[in-house]
Amino acid sequence: MELLLFVQLAGGLVYLLLGGDVLVRGAVALARRYHVSPMVIALTVVAFGTSLPELVVVVEAALTGYPGLVFGNVVGSNIANILLVAGAAAVVYPLTYGEHSVRRDSVVMIAATVLLILLSLNGTLGRVDGVVLLAGLAGVTLLTVREATRMYRDSDVKPPLEWALGLPTNLWMIALFIVAGAIALPIGADLVVESSVQIASSLGVSETVVGLTILAIGTSLPELATTVVAALQKRTEVAVGTVVGSNIFNILAIMGLGAVISPFPIEVPGEFFTVHFPVMLGAALLISVFIWRKRPIGRVAGIAYLAAYAAYLGVLAVRTVGAAG
Length: 325
Description:
By secondary structure, the chain is an all-alpha fold. It is 82% helix and 1% strand.
């Protein structure tokens, strides 16, 4: 029985990842067809696309009444994005960054992390808190698009979309990509949430633990693929930007939307304040120190990141076993 649940979970993740991929390709192709700036596409559609798995899972979990999956997936994904994703990319090729916007975005990431913690202090995250997070997203997106548009207009070199390979060109094919992605994503989310809850029940652990581990890693696969490919191509500013941008989006957009659409205020388990929030904030500060000092994240640091993530999973396993005992 448990094996079938894991097969169902894997199938749901496949639906999520493939659905997100074709939806993003369709959206990028549509934007290119109507001559939208490549930089704006990269900072909006692609950044949004890598977080689509987390988004649909959180929406499904919020609407079906599984708050542990909501917080577990968002917080767990943010931790995995830095310690696992950035760590793996740094092992492939040292991560460097030269643009001022990355330093600014790292500050936004820390501010968003602190904001989420502060809003959670009363033990719940309600609709008003969600609106505050979404308002922060609107402000950040507006500033980013305005800056990107200005930079694109003032630049003599129009950056090509080298990363957007295999884009459809025919309008009907573009529509097919978008529709296929829109259909696959909710199917995947339903499979993932249902199997995750049943796995948690069969293993005697909370849904929060499943969200922090299996779901967090599974829904972080788009970021992992993007950053490792960017590192292999030695385009490490893309790798760092993807991680930082995804973490900002996870908190402001995904957590904000989850809180707004949830029928009831989302309860924040007490263990988040003692373990998971500190780890998430610490990871954000850890990568930001490198960014602020303009120091490359080398292979040794990458290995340290991966070791830290393994240690975090180890602590989580020990606490889970202790709670079960």
